[in-house]
Amino acid sequence: MASNSFGQVFRVTTWGESHGPRIGCVVDGVPPRIPISEDEIQHWMDRRRPGTSRYTTQRREPDRVSIVSGWFEGMTTGTPLAMTVENVDQRSRDYDDLSSVWRPGHADYTYDVKYGIRDWRGSGRASARETAMRVAAGAVARKVLGETIVIRGAVVQIGPHAIDRSAWDWEETGRNPFWCPDCAMASRWADHLDSVRKEGSSAGAVIEIRASGVPAGLGSPVYGKLDSDLAAAMMSINAVKGVEIGDGFALASAPGTEAADEMRSGGNGPQFLSNRAGGILGGISTGEELIVRFAVKPTSSIFHERRTVTNEGQDTTVRVTGRHDPCVGIRAVPVGEAMMACVLADHLLRHKAQCG
Amino acid sequence: MASNSFGQVFRVTTWGESHGPRIGCVVDGVPPRIPISEDEIQHWMDRRRPGTSRYTTQRREPDRVSIVSGWFEGMTTGTPLAMTVENVDQRSRDYDDLSSVWRPGHADYTYDVKYGIRDWRGSGRASARETAMRVAAGAVARKVLGETIVIRGAVVQIGPHAIDRSAWDWEETGRNPFWCPDCAMASRWADHLDSVRKEGSSAGAVIEIRASGVPAGLGSPVYGKLDSDLAAAMMSINAVKGVEIGDGFALASAPGTEAADEMRSGGNGPQFLSNRAGGILGGISTGEELIVRFAVKPTSSIFHERRTVTNEGQDTTVRVTGRHDPCVGIRAVPVGEAMMACVLADHLLRHKAQCG
Amino acid sequence: MASNSFGQVFRVTTWGESHGPRIGCVVDGVPPRIPISEDEIQHWMDRRRPGTSRYTTQRREPDRVSIVSGWFEGMTTGTPLAMTVENVDQRSRDYDDLSSVWRPGHADYTYDVKYGIRDWRGSGRASARETAMRVAAGAVARKVLGETIVIRGAVVQIGPHAIDRSAWDWEETGRNPFWCPDCAMASRWADHLDSVRKEGSSAGAVIEIRASGVPAGLGSPVYGKLDSDLAAAMMSINAVKGVEIGDGFALASAPGTEAADEMRSGGNGPQFLSNRAGGILGGISTGEELIVRFAVKPTSSIFHERRTVTNEGQDTTVRVTGRHDPCVGIRAVPVGEAMMACVLADHLLRHKAQCG
Amino acid sequence: MASNSFGQVFRVTTWGESHGPRIGCVVDGVPPRIPISEDEIQHWMDRRRPGTSRYTTQRREPDRVSIVSGWFEGMTTGTPLAMTVENVDQRSRDYDDLSSVWRPGHADYTYDVKYGIRDWRGSGRASARETAMRVAAGAVARKVLGETIVIRGAVVQIGPHAIDRSAWDWEETGRNPFWCPDCAMASRWADHLDSVRKEGSSAGAVIEIRASGVPAGLGSPVYGKLDSDLAAAMMSINAVKGVEIGDGFALASAPGTEAADEMRSGGNGPQFLSNRAGGILGGISTGEELIVRFAVKPTSSIFHERRTVTNEGQDTTVRVTGRHDPCVGIRAVPVGEAMMACVLADHLLRHKAQCG
After folding, report:
1. In chain C, % of residues over pLDDT 70
2. Chain D residues with beta carbon closer than 8 angstroms to that of B221
3. Which of C215, C283, C265, D104 is nearest to A78 (CA)?
4. Which of B73, B116, B318, D200 is the most exposed place for a label (fewest CB within 10 A)?
């Protein structure tokens, strides 16, 4: 059934395939009279754009966004804001050999078994290309949230190499091609990915998204909890296999005496003395920084022969050539930020509706 | 806004607070003519019931479920199936001292800041008591799924102590009070929890839910992916801080050459030679066993003085007495199973709708 | 699929059958801290209660409403507000003869063909008894709307006898058992219904619901238009076969020069010089009085032999005995008011979310 | 909040304004492997296209539809089917004078009061141009329904002139520019509209949409009743002020002895001896022909001076020039058919989900 929308009040619907003429989205429920320009949206699109370093796919997509409705005299009108991006650098021939083979780790088999038909060109709808429109929608969401809410992301692990969190420097994320906040680790990742690529292999990653300035009170128990919606949002990104909030899985082994964040009164309401909860209690934001991490599996397209099956049930092997990110996790940073922005915009408006 | 329902075709709405007269749920969209009895539902309720061992809360709740609509001559009718459970062993006085204090790690502060009012008796709506109705709904979901789909859960870690996965024995989970599949570890957990309780502390846990017999093809990309909905479902359970599918976070450090599950042809369509993906590719089930894990933080109610603030903004300390689970993760097993059942029932029907 | 809820932000879910132990509803998304009492809700329930005059069914139901969640210290808490009403005066034996016969004009056949099972006692879920919970939800909605929005209903036609609109007097609706605003017509309806009953027949009706004090700006184009949602709400009431807004069907024959309401400036924004549009333009409220009318078909249960079929496909006849409203339209007035209240409460909150 | 989608399983989202670069829709939840071509969709688009007779607007729009996603090798893929239509013949200058004046009967004032901003070019989002995308979606819906379900529409009244129903001939609807099934009435309407146009006025209409071949069992009580969803769908069409099912408002004055359709056994289940119910009982289809009628008010844009107010609150008058349909009801026929098709496709899939 219809499942290509997310959000309730601020709702994003995306459409389009990797090798169709264009991809697009409809952002419905946008508050009116928000000044916004295509350039502002493009700013965020450019952060996700492929081909910007040798560590991401060499597909050359300008990813130029156009606003085609819901926008008048430089402002949102409250009607559906539709955006499109042309697909330019499609090389469908790269995929000719793959039309009848199910690549391991990809959605080829599952799309075929579910729908009985599959647009095999560039993974079709299952391509990470779809996430470009999430970034466009996220740019609109950021405008809804305003400037006091700041959403930033970083890669905190590539392959087995995790950053030194004490070395965290947000400025650093803009200086290397990995969104790495730890200067020393960035060069180590460069080496790691060079060797991974040389071997024809790929690497996984862990991404961390933070939002500061989020007011306490957002989230809608018990099935629209903020963490529940964030988990769904992040898990819906291609290749994501795990999501955690605050200290996440580490809290399972923490003693009860250290797990809960204590409070003291402050100038502006209560202050938390730590933030192991990642800014969420009972599914509602606490006013502390929101912290979400997600794990991305290694790119499934690798230059090694892998055992698989054809769509007619014959054993075969496949070795994927073509242009692929050695670590898809890197380009997931702007996508994760966008999902955070969309979830927060939705919950800001949901909160206004019931409690505003 | 309205957020106490989940699921699309098979939709569960829960209501009720810890210390109200009763709690309940409405299960809407249930296929008609499914034979079901209160006893069958009770079977699953009893697995979650408090007071069954010294490792869970001593609140004495019979948790006797009644079906009050949508049921005729022993069968579902296709109309809303409503169920209720009486709250029996409420001791609201236990909470009198807590009416004006925000307990660390609890939702007290966030409910107050969001709604400006809070039913402080037994945590009100934020109490894990709500999860009883998820188990009731899950029992109905199991009937929708039929007997070939088997959903089971286990605790795989308590505090810092993880099981030896090579010792996994499903039978074992029924023989100890921890749903522990590793016989040796069960007695170690008993010791650990005894000492935790003696210290007035608490412990976290990791729970694993598996579903076998799930046909390939369930899940609805790109925002109703099966893993996305499972993540939301598990994260909506009280105290959960992380969710992962298959090898989850471990995949981030795996090399690309080992991350994807290879395939060979089999008697019944393709077979996967491993299941690191946890039974989901591209948001759609592969036919392999579904594997989901979630992390539960330690119970926040502990017998230690903790710094906090009153609802009038005064610094204070709180030491929670009363009856609490030393490890809420244990009773999360039947809840996680129920959420898995509800998500699968919903997706089974969603799949029938579009592709059936 | 799940279809027993309506509303988006303010969402009502009802459950229960005519002859089950009780019926109920869950009102989700209610703003917190609204003072409300069971007595206030009961006030509206009593207006719909059966057995209050000889022109409505003689079933004796006290219809005493209980709030069972979402309510603390006399106020809403923002969590799901659940309510129940006991079914007291069930006489299932009245229906024994009807268990295998499809009564003409009833939902017997369609429920059987859809679900393959039917709770035939008192029409089961298809009974107008379900509307009691709409009235309860509507009482909550009225509190959300506040006192400046006034919702009132009247019967404007019974059988072929329409009121004289120039004689409209709202006070009059409380003085006769028909909610008739035209004093002279009330006595004529009494005669008509007495004769209808004597003949063992029944009568249809047209109901008009008005809401004054509704601010301009409510409604959410293009598929959540206020008139669209009102049409759905009214059409969902049992036995309703038509809905119109403002001058409705009469506008089809009006000349263009007379159809649109002209405007002049006023003290409080523009004023409309007429209200043929019934307070809605482009799906959004104009600030003028909202006017909705709906047609109710004659009660299908009549004391005449009617040709029909058994559920085994045999020709037969049926003559319905038992206790039935000779004109179900009369008791539809409080139900229509309630639906208007629920739609407006939902749209008030939806408007706050996006544009507030 | 987000309100530009309708349908649950088969869900249509439209976007675009009258004078933007293009308009479009996303049809989500389409079953896979349905063969469909742009030409097939164009066939239905052409029926709604403006400028085809002197009785509709002279705006010249080719309304050429493009499928831009969800379509591969001539078939639907189960992923979102997106379609667009270029806006070609925009003459925004026609509207320059109207940018600051609220035209009576239009949504100008209500959009301004709701959103605080309004795309005044050609009525922006409130333009009937949006309905072009409903027709495109409806074309897809027809393919989902298959060939045994036949949906047809007719105009049954223009201004005060209603057809003679005994003269109904479906063939006739294709032979005159009014979709009129009564040959004699068609010429009378031509005269009427000629004189209406000469006077610079406009006319209303009543449209009837019928669907035959609909299986019994579609519709989802109690808030997703088939008639409830049809009422919402038709009422959401521009300028519609009333909706009725079967005999509709006429049933209010019918005696109970004549209102219900009797049944006899037939070769294929029960047969109804009449169809006053319009094919729906209890919100579920009976297997009889579905019959829906809706009233369209006269075009609000007329060549007469009308009193109104500027958006700065000054009294003024307005006389609308430009290209307008003298009777918008005529072009509402294909739109009403499309809405019927979309509602039925959605309910067919919803029924499969729960009861299939």
Report:
1. 98
2. 79
3. C283
4. B73
Which residue spans within A297-347 are E strands per DSSP? 306-309, 315-318
**Contact status, residue B293 vs residue B248, Cβ threshold 8 Å:** yes
Of D8, D221, D352, the CB nearest to B356: D352
> How far B320 CA lies from chain A's nearest CA (Å)?
12
Sequence-ordered list of residues with C-beta below 8 angstroms from that of C97, at least 6 positions apart, any chain = none
Quote the CA–CA distance of A303 and A296 in Å, as a whole number. 19
CA distances from A70 to A86, B145, C1, D25 (A): 19, 43, 32, 14
Give the whole-angstrom CA distance, residue B238 versus residue A283.
Answer: 9
DSSP category for residue B179? -
Nearest residue to B349 via CA among B190, B219, B250, B239: B219
Residues A186, A180: Cα–Cα separation, whole Å: 6
CA dihedral angle for residue D28, residue D29, residue D33, residue D39, rounded to 10 degrees: -40
Could you tell me which of B240, B179, B238, B214 has the C-alpha nearest to residue B340? B214
Q: Is residue D84 a contact partner of residue D23, using CB atoms and an 8 Å limit?
A: yes
Distance, in Å, from the CA atom of C352 to the CA atom of A341, rounded to the nearest integer, reads: 20
Q: Cβ B77–C115 below 8 Å, yes or no?
A: yes
Confidence of residue C92 (pLDDT cuts 50, 70, 90): low
What is the predicted ipTM? Answer: 0.97
- Give pLDDT tens digits along chain D (356 positions): 999 999 999 999 999 999 999 999 999 999 999 999 999 999 999 988 776 777 877 677 789 999 999 999 999 999 999 999 999 877 766 677 788 999 999 999 999 999 999 999 989 999 999 999 999 999 999 999 999 999 999 999 999 999 999 999 999 999 999 999 999 999 999 999 999 999 999 999 999 999 999 999 999 999 999 999 999 999 999 999 999 999 999 999 999 999 999 999 988 889 999 999 999 999 999 999 999 999 999 999 999 999 999 999 999 999 987 777 899 999 999 999 999 999 999 999 999 999 99
C-alpha to C-alpha distance for B23 and B18, rounded to whole angstroms:
8
Residue D79 CA to residue C90 CA, distance in Å, equals 50
Q: What are phi and psi of C347, to 5 degrees?
A: -75, -30
Tokens of residue A258, six digits: 């250290």
Q: Give the residue from chain B lying closest to A234, CA to CA.
A: B228
> What's the angle, vertex CA D218, arms to CA D215 and CA D224, rounded to 5?
165
Handedness of CA A300, A301, A303, A307 (dihedral sign): positive
- Closest among A124, A134, A107 to D77, alpha carbons compared: A124
Q: Residue B50 in contact with residue B59, Cβ under 8 Å?
A: yes
Q: Which of D305, A353, B175 is nearest to C144 (CA)?
A: A353
D31, D78, D353: residue with CB nearest B9: D353
Q: What is the DSSP letter of D338?
A: H
Decide: A17 and D79 in contact? Cβ < 8 Å.
yes
What pairs with residue C206 in β-bridges?
A: C157, C295
pLDDT of residue C91: 72
Taking an 8 Å cut-off on Cβ atoms, the answer to whether A352 and C353 are in contact is: yes
Q: What amino acid occupies position A6?
A: F
Taking CB atoms and an 8 Å limit, are D216 and C302 in contact across chains? no
Tokens 């699921």 found at: B7
Is C298 touching D (CB cutoff 8 A)? yes
- Give the phi and the psi of residue A32 in degrees, each rounded to 5: -80, 165
CB pairs under 8 A between A and B: 379
HSE value, Cβ hemisphere, 13 Å, CA-based, for A285: 25
Cα separation values, B306 from A164, A282, B317, Å: 30, 19, 5
d(CA D10, CA B15): 30
Q: Rounded to whole angstroms, how far apart are CA atoms D104 and D116? A: 18
